[in-house]
């Protein structure tokens, strides 16, 4: 028989191969989990983070319960290899503050992210848009901290009904761009005004010069006529 980690045991439930490691004092995802496991229970342990390829050798996994651990970070690629079959992923009651949406890329599973100390910001907004949340779990995604203090203690989905965290930064960038463009525009206008005024001045002088030309010519013609007569 395989030497399973202490507190872990395989069983068959409703025709599905199940591997239970609940309350086993685990500090990492155990190796040597049977490859044909359909349901994996790693809840109520002390696992602090999920490394890349943590479940790569479990291609038939349908359900993964990681609730009630100390998970504070999820590496990109932690769930690689689970995209095809996994339909339930429970990460509730952990220590997740911020996770990149890339960690869940291609996952079709229903994900429970409730009861974590979330930082409500653009990153969480992008994550929520990427994952398919477990029915009824969204109210448990609460702002433990936020880029805006008035959101603390509120459900995230309630907050993003009025606030677009990702657009806050975009607006700041847009304003900076507008100010820069306005600055350039003002410079161009100033130059054009100066240029037109300068040209008007030159044009005025030129007109005065042209106006003065006929009288000078008359005088010279008169003088040449007089000299001829004399």
What is the residue-averaged pLDDT?
A: 86
**What is the CATH fold-level name of the largest domain?**
Leucine-rich repeat, LRR (right-handed beta-alpha superhelix)
**Overall shape:** rod-shaped
- Largest sheet, strands/sense/barrel: 7 strands, mixed
Strand order of the largest sheet: 1-2-3-5-7-8-10
At the first level of CATH, the class of the largest domain is: Alpha Beta
Give start-end ranges of low-pLDDT stretches: none
Task: Output the number of helix runs.
Answer: 3
InterPro entries: Leu-rich_rpt, Leu-rich_rpt_typical-subtyp, LRR_dom_sf, LRR_TM_domain-containing
Family: Belongs to the LRRC3 family.
Protein name: LRC3B protein
Membrane topology: Single-pass membrane protein
Index terms:
230 residues; alpha/beta; Leucine-rich repeat, LRR (right-handed beta-alpha superhelix); 7-stranded mixed sheet; two-stranded parallel ribbon; 3 helices; Leu-rich_rpt_typical-subtyp
